[in-house]
Design goal:
alpha/beta, Rossmann fold, 7-stranded mixed sheet, two-stranded antiparallel ribbon, 32% helix
């Protein structure tokens, strides 16, 4: 966790219904790349720590005998369970409302454990050591994030880009100049340096896999609004009674930039970093 910041249960309060619609998808082919690298064959068990509404877990669930998702936000767990049922995966998935710091919770051993853009919210030293112990010898921990060094193509777009700088300024106008996170603030953003904690836990690595992005996506205004409300720094609860006014201002900004309500966004690539528990350990 970031120095000086304390986790609290409101971190993503109200964000879960917006997450699946508002967040950009992982790079196309990510599940296939992971399946080859991890030699997934429909057996074994997957643990997704900080699973959100099941975004990664449900992409991989048909490649395991059982998938267990754990998240500290009750709304995320409920959304994940509903999505699993819609996908016909309810019988192969389990969703647990708990903080990562509460693990292992008697959940048993796993062949693969994943952190998909979630590890920075946790007590990283403690959680890395615990999850290592939950891996079977030879098992793999996967740390997934956007590929930050991906080359960005240039050229004309069919629609205006999402006005991210304007959205950020609007959030600051409504919530103040310092990034909000639950009941606290993150003046310096979320921390990096996760490799140090995985190495300290006795995991072997890193092995990096990069999956390029999928080019241009078309986004509607409703999807852009959902994306804004899906983040910890602009989760719905932070606005309180001012949420309708914020959303009205946001939609006015979007209409000014694109009167058609259509935007172009580039799908990010994905970077998966693999860390393995030694065989015979």
């Amino acid at each position: 966790m970031a120095e000086g910041w304390q986790w609290d249960e409101t971190l993503f309060e109200g964000a879960a219904p917006h997450y699946a619609r508002g967040r950009l998808p992982y790079a196309p082919g990510l599940a296939e790349v992971l399946a080859r690298a991890l030699r997934l064959d429909g057996t074994g068990r997957l643990l997704d720590v900080g699973c959100g509404p099941g975004t990664l877990a449900l992409e991989l669930a048909d490649r395991f005998a059982e998938t267990v998702g754990v998240d500290a936000d009750a709304g995320m767990v409920e959304e994940a369970a509903r999505a699993a049922a819609r996908a016909g995966l309810a019988g192969r998935t389990r969703w647990v409302h708990a903080r990562a710091e509460q693990l292992p919770l008697g959940l048993g051993r796993f062949d693969v454990a994943a952190f998909a853009q979630s590890f920075h919210w946790m007590d990283r030293e403690r959680v890395a050591a615990t999850v290592r112990g939950m891996l079977r010898p030879g098992g793999t921990l996967v740390h997934l994030s956007d590929w930050k060094d991906e080359p960005r193509p240039t050229g004309p777009l069919p629609h205006p880009p999402v006005p991210q700088a304007g959205i950020d300024a609007l959030v600051r106008r409504h919530l103040g100049p310092v990034r909000r996170a639950g009941r606290g603030v993150l003046p310096h953003g979320t921390p990096g340096g996760e490799s140090l904690f995985y190495a300290r836990a006795g995991l072997l690595g890193p092995e990096k896999l990069v999956v390029p992005g999928g080019g241009l996506l078309e986004r509607g205004a409703d999807e852009v609004v959902a994306g804004v409300l899906s983040t910890s720094s602009s989760a719905p609860h932070l606005f309180g009674a001012g949420l309708p006014a914020f959303e009205a201002d946001l939609r006015a900004l979007l209409h000014e930039v694109s009167p058609t309500g259509r935007f172009s966004a580039r799908q990010p690539g994905s970077e998966a970093v693999l860390w393995r528990r030694p065989d015979g350990d």
